[in-house]
Automatic annotation (TrEMBL):
Annotated gene: thrS
Record-given protein name: Threonine--tRNA ligase
Keyword Methyltransferase on entry: no
Catalytic activity: tRNA(Thr) + L-threonine + ATP = L-threonyl-tRNA(Thr) + AMP + diphosphate + H(+)
Organism: Methanosarcina barkeri MS
Record keyword Transferase present: no
Domain of life from the UniProt record: Archaea
Localization in the cell: Cytoplasm
């Protein structure tokens, strides 16, 4: 854990049985304007202490350069881990880091194995609190090696390793085209952007408690954890399955209108296929691996493999370009780390709409990139996630930026707000340009939704070519696009957004086209049920009837807890007049419902206008609530 501090000071109080012997001068210490590195040496570091020393010193140097300090305090802090190394190795590593940094910096090291009192004053800027996890070489077993009991060690790609060590520059890009150093940019007017900046730079993905959407997904009977499966694999109840299906259909409809052809490819591939093996090392993700007929297989984490192998076998003309294909990958698999798995935010099995576009050259790719950027904005807008609800990250190589500044600046202008930029001197991955729309939740954790990437490697790697106007073969430039991001994350974002709006005093709800029940009819007594059925027949939407033997107040309250957009109460007055009493959730305030007296036909017209152009599915449960089971 790295803290940029105004000052750090400590004083030893009592030694433990494993305390190192120290001189009197080391029993207290103070540094001002210092980077403090709180460290715990773990058992895994015993395999290669020298590499741990080298990597840790390098990481501390990077951060010291970023925060512009030449003073470093090394502070052993065993509370950071429950899997500590032996005291002997810990002292060796700590002293080694001290030696590696001395000469370049003013370094102080607090002694190991002593109870200490300390005071620290954190500066509070976006780079002042960071965390890093260092893993030495030699601790990651080779791909495909079977451990005791037949369980495979996870496979970690070279790209994922590079992601942890790649040197990048973080900046804020404003719509006027100016790049600002983060520590010199006032993020106060942009609290969500500040949270996103902190999240990205700290690289801390683990969560300490469940975010609000976890309670909501259960209470609304959408989804839940599946204890009978691997962590990060969820169960979806009828209402949740309905919402997923509607989102999947919507994104596929949009992609088809955009000119993409829907395909389907396998979920399992040969780890030792020469082309796939090379690509695995270029993608920053952890894979599930399994044995099948003595072959080492992996479960896909995207649709790239299948679509690129298909492209390899196709005959493609320049007249076909840009050529777009999409697959709704139910499922993609990533072996995310356990501490990061929570609710629908980060999963090991997820549904990803994955579109790839083959373009003639970089000029056509840039043109497509612009159009797909706008496409992603529109997709999220129609789902109910607006520009104000997410933060934009743009990542690129320095060379690409210098040749395409206007493209990058226009991305900030389009959303009309500052965006986070990450720039690399050297290209570590297969893309030269990438953006993500990131939703920041109630716990200040960010999750990427839509993304588009310009890929300059895989046409060559997969031997994909097209016939140009002169009849010669050429390599296309490839775009990767997920118009919405993972479908589960869209649900997560909608629920988190609703939870945060509730805190602001607003009434939470889902968009009407995604609401499992769009209209609930509540008859006051049994004699009003027949008329409730008549009204339901006049509504072309998902309508149910609460015929349970409960008080009218309880029925209405439960409809509110289920976020039903329109609640219709029917009694003698409604039967007599032929009109209905409707509570409109979207126009209500907390403790102040908006009620209108209208005809069933008027309500039907209103709902048809709200869901026009969106996919539709029938009610996923019994029309009468008395016939429904409870899932949670």
């Amino acid at each position: 854990m790295l803290i940029h501090s105004d000052y750090i000071e400590y004083e030893t109080k009592k030694q433990t049985p494993v305390a190192e012997k120290i001189e009197e001068s080391l029993k207290s210490g103070r540094l001002e304007e210092a980077l403090t590195a709180f460290m715990a040496v773990e058992s895994v570091d015993e395999a290669n202490p020298e590499d741990t020393i080298e990597k840790t010193a390098s990481e501390i140097e990077k951060v010291a350069t970023q925060v512009k300090t030449n003073r470093i305090m090394l502070y052993p802090y065993a509370h950071l881990s429950s899997d500590l190394s032996s005291p002997k190795v810990a002292v060796k590593v700590l002293k080694g880091i001290e030696t590696a940094l001395s000469g370049k910096y003013e370094v102080k090291r607090a002694p190991f194995g002593w109870y200490k009192a300390f005071s620290i004053s954190c500066k509070g800027h976006p780079l002042s609190e960071l965390s890093r996890s260092i893993r030495p070489e030699g601790t990651q077993k080779a791909a495909g090696k079977v451990e005791a009991g037949g369980e495979k060690e996870e496979v970690v790609s070279e790209a994922l390793k590079a992601e942890g060590t790649a040197k990048s520059y973080w900046r804020i890009l404003t719509p006027d085209g100016e790049l600002h150093e983060i520590e010199n940019f006032d993020l106060t007017p942009y609290p969500k952007l500040q949270q996103f900046v902190n999240y990205e730079i700290s690289k801390s993905r683990a969560v300490e408690r469940a975010p609000p959407h976890v309670e909501l997904m259960r209470r609304l009977e959408l989804a839940d954890y599946e204890p009978g499966s691997d962590s990060g694999n969820m169960r979806y109840y009828p209402k949740g399955r309905l919402i997923k299906a509607l989102l999947e259909n919507y994104v596929l409809d949009v992609a088809t209108d955009f000119g993409a052809m829907e395909v389907e490819t396998p979920i399992m591939y040969d780890m030792n296929h020469p082309t796939l093996k090379k690509y695995l090392d270029r993608f920053p993700a952890r894979q599930y691996s399994i044995e099948s007929d003595k072959r080492h297989m992996f479960l896909r984490f995207a649709a790239c493999f299948g679509q690129f192998l298909m492209n390899h076998d196709m005959t493609i003309s320049y007249r076909n370009l840009p050529l777009r294909m999409i697959e709704m990958t139910r499922y993609s698999f990533r072996k995310e780390q356990r501490g990061e798995l929570v609710g629908l935010r980060r999963l090991r099995a997820f549904t990803m709409p994955d579109m790839h576009s083959l373009c003639e050259d970089m000029d056509q790719a840039v043109d497509q990139f612009k159009k797909q950027y706008d496409l992603c904005i529109n997709v999220l807008e129609n789902i109910g996630i607006h520009i104000k609800d997410y933060e934009v990250a743009i990542r690129f190589t320095k060379d690409f930026y210098e040749s395409n500044k206007e493209l990058v600046v226009n991305m900030a202008r389009t959303v009309d707000k500052p965006v986070l930029v990450e720039m690399w001197d050297t290209r570590f991955f297969y893309f030269v340009l990438k953006f993500e729309f990131n939703f920041v939740d109630a716990l200040a954790k960010a999750s990427a939704l839509s993304t588009v990437q310009i890929d300059v490697e895989n046409a060559e790697r997969y031997d994909i070519s097209y016939v140009n106007a002169d009849g010669k073969l050429e390599r296309p430039t490839v775009l990767h696009c997920s118009p919405s991001g993972a479908i589960e994350r869209c649900i997560y974002a909608l629920l988190e957004k609703a939870a945060m709006e509730t805190e602001e005093g607003k009434v939470p709800m889902l968009p009407v086209w995604l609401s499992p029940t769009q209209v609930r009819i509540v008859p006051i007594s049994e004699k009003h049920v027949a008329f409730a059925e008549e009204v339901s027949q006049k509504l072309d939407c998902r309508v149910d009837i609460d015929d349970r033997d409960l008080s009218i107040g309880k029925k209405v309250r439960e409809a509110g807890r289920e976020w039903v957009p329109y609640v219709v109460v029917i009694g003698d007055k409604e039967i007599e007049n032929g009109t209905i009493n409707v509570t409109i959730r979207a126009e209500s305030e907390q403790n102040k419902p908006k009620k209108v007296q209208i005809t069933p036909e008027e309500l039907n017209d209103r709902i048809k206008g709200e869901i026009a152009g969106k996919p539709y599915r029938k009610l996923p449960l019994s029309k009468y609530l008395s016939g429904r089971p409870k899932f949670v």
